[in-house]
Amino acid sequence: MNDQLNYYARRAALGLISRREFIGRALALGATAATANTLLSSAVKAAGPQPGGIIRLGIQGGSTTDNLDPATAANFAATQGNLLWGEALLSLVDGGGLAGRVAESYEGSPDAKTWRFKLRDGITYSNGKPVTSDDVVATIERHAGEDTESGALGLLRDIDTVTAEDNTVVIGLKNPNADLPYYMQDYHLIIQPDGGKDDPTAAIGTGPYILKEFEAGVRSVFEKNPNYWGDYGYASTIELIVINDNTARVAALQAGQVDLIDRVPPRTAGLIDKNPNITVHSVPSSGHYVFIMHCDTAPFNNNDLRLALKHGINRQEMVDKILFGYGSAGNDTPINAAYPLYTEFEQREYDPDKAKFHFNKSGYDGSILLRTSDNSFPGAPDAAALFQQSLAAAGIKLEIKREPNDGYWSEVWNKQPFCTSYWGGRPIQDQMFSTAYLSSADWNDTRFFNDEFDKLLVTARGEVNTTKRKQIYADMGTVLRNEGGLICPMFNDFVDAQSSRIVGWKNETPGFALMNNSAPMRMWVKA
Amino acid sequence: MLTRIPAATILGFVFSTLFFLLAIFAPLVAPYGYDEVVSTGFWEPATSDFLLGTDNIGRDLLSRMIYGLQTTIWIATLATILSFTTGSILGFLAAVMGGWIDQALSRFIDLMMSIPSLIFALVILSIMPITITILIVVMGLLDATRVYRLARAVAVDINVMDYVEAAKLRGERWRWIIFREILPNSLSPLVAEMGLRFIFAVLFISTLSFLGLGIQPPQADLGGLVKENAEGLTYGIGAALYPAATIAVLAISVNLVADWILSRTSSLKGGRG
Amino acid sequence: MGLLAKLLAQRIALGLLLLFLISIFIFAGTLLLPGDVAQQILGQTATPEALANLRAKLGVNEPPIDRYLTWLGGLLTGDLGTALTSGQNINEALFRRLANTFFLAFWAAIIAVPLAIFLGLLAVRFRDRWPDKLISASTLSTISMPEFVIGYILMFILGVKLRWFSPTAVGYRPDADLLSRLDSIAIPIMVLTLVVLAHMMRMTRAAILNVMQSAYIETAELKGLSTFTVIRKHAFPNAISPVVNVVMLNLAYLVVGVVVVEVVFVYPGLGQYLVDHVTKRDIPVVQACGIIFATIYIGLNLVADLISILTNPRLRHPK
User: Fold this and answer.
1) Is residue B73, in this structure, part of any structural domain at all?
2) What is the ipTM of this complex?
3) Residue B165 lies inside a defined structural domain of this protein
4) Between chains, do C140 and B251 touch, taking CB under 8 Å as contact?
5) Cβ proximity of A99 and A93 under 8 Å
């Protein structure tokens, strides 16, 4: 029976018989429907990527205010769209590490102060023009220049010189940084003709697709770039459809209006997974839902009070009730197993007695005001209510103030001493720490000023020995966990879902949604 | 006529009274606190401990609904009364006075209505402290513009009736004309409008949470409870339907009573009893 | 009729003045709002330098009066300017979305308004009997639920389970044929109809009942006319004014107030466009939308007033 079944599965995978017909024959041969489906999908994968067809992606986060300039891309829909038509020098690969895109290879000097990126030979933009090292220099100049609006500026501050040598770009740093190549895969730093200086929104790049239609916050249509250098890009057309409403996104997938969606609401994920035509993919990520305290503002300037709050939160309850199990408990550092040089700490548990002890020791006896909004993370007001209850058991009174969704990021976050917030992860520790926990960080949203921590970070940047670096990061984690202003109850998973119309999902991609934005170009339509 | 109250009206009265009593005595009636997390699970089905099951984070749904009813009824009733008195009195005044008073009032109302309510609410939010009182006043006044247009339209029609003309010729003052002639003869559409405005107010409170106005978590209003639990609907979990049904029953009861008042008003007009 | 023409001219002139005032109010209002466009564009991860650079580029450092006058000058020549955030021409994006908004509002109104009035008449005809009760209870139930809940329920049943219509409007293309466009908006139309039905139906019923208690209706009934004839010939014409006003309120809602339905069904209307740009503090777009919405309100109010005047008993039966 198995040979026969496999034979039919191969025929179905090649499109010689229909899926319905295959299932019918499989059932006739005594297989269950589930077995038949599994067989079919592995046969399809074995048959390899098939070119052609259309993949429609229902995506969250787009706004009618979006534009096509990679420098100002600030939401997931914009990022995903830009990464279809454009590429950075490097990209993350499955299982961690970096792969070359516009750059073919890279190497650093032993002191990690000079980095050379050798560009890929003979690749062209979608307008047919060749990519030059001058374009790369111009791109970095545009994002790091004095009059830039780029979201990547923070990453590029330490760059001293950028020069073009034939087909190589040389970046000289003011201080050593062993992680510089990771910065070069940032989604803002897409290589554009003349660095995008003359026309930042032209959407001309080296990506596997060419932008054909764009309506901000509604949809964009991409056609396969026939001259793409690499092997990504199987579907001949990709349509990105912005669907911000969670329920609508799921409904569109269920009804076959789209083939792939991101951000499946955790509460619904379990339900739609039961649908035989839909597969849910849940990937652990480094994104975290947090409560942040300003370490320099009373009463949070007292470390015992901070510890009281850290012991007074029930992390597992939040993972269960706010993330519906699609996530993992946090441990009051922004780092989790999604990072390359991760060291595990003993899990801090909910302990009302310890919370009470530290609270009494702090000498503070008033109530504590927490500001929140659904805009900080989905379910934030509910999480705040749970926090209030678990603190009440320790005799600590938490007062909740719901703030307007509108303007939360400009008026509450990074301004008020205690609020709910969200951090998307970064590919490496250095980037996360220097973005938010270094004394001089642009978004030091916990007002954490710690000399020891700062020194360790600088040491780590110049340390090329990974074992030693790992130890330094562990030490930094300890400092942050015991003294920082971050209460991190949970890391969220990224939950995506696809219909059985497309195949090719790979689960090894670390830490980010939609296979780190590569899903639309690495999946293909089943023949 | 007075002695024979229809069964539907009695039902309406009973439910309305019940809701108002529940609202007043919420802390005595509710089995648990509105903020108390009583279960480690969430969206659990009804049990003898939790008569309507638990909500999205494991609080007793029934208790939350009773407290929600309190918030909702309190705010919606006050806002409705405010919008009605302001809207209808100004509307009648404009109709009876006519001329430039009418023109000025009506165009001012046009202006108020024309400003998108999102912008209106955000501006208010940014220049005033947010308290329940301000919430009620803002809601009431925004709604009053709608009531004004209706009241004025009805009153203009009545204003030209023979009996009003007669009263004017008798030399009655505008106050007499408004309260003795116009008001009784326009009650029917106004009462119908009031019943609906009440529902709109109930729902409006919950939409304001988007703006961070009003109800602070872990407190909730009925509309807010629907929202909190709405995600369960596509999951086959009906927790959101209980508060929604409560709003519906509340709305129907209030409107049944309104209908009855409406039929009673005919006797005020000296028409058929 | 000369009187009417004069009134019309007067009201249009006043309307223009109102629009001018509204534009000032909205401009000043958006300036009062905390937060600025640069921060909103670049989001949580913006650096201070990037913010300052973007502000300079967008011209938001210029004095407000100058910015307002520039905008007003553009408006008078029919140019709504450029969006600060996306750099797009506002005219193009706005009118494309306005057309979508009108398309949805038109079909919802075409179904909802006649249906509401018919149900209202039916309720009066069978007053206090079961059809009246049934109509009242069911319409009141549907407006008791927030519109997104009705939306989710219908989307799930009609779109996902039964597959009768598209669950969302993601397939909506303005240049597609009418049938496929209607398929995209079928469920939104139903939701909107359920949302506005009760208000108009209850008002029709109440306004007619109000008139039905007048002495001349009694006379008409004594003449032996059937109930429907009495309603149609005598009661309804005298009840038009309040009904028209309520219909107008609901039409205005269908055009300017349906942002929730737009979001739930992913329909590219004007509401979402306005909300996105308010969030980003993109004043030129907010201004443009504000003027469009205000024009719609003022226009609808004007129409309602004109109909009220035309149907005023005094005008219809001059002494």
Assistant:
1) yes
2) 0.87
3) yes
4) yes
5) yes
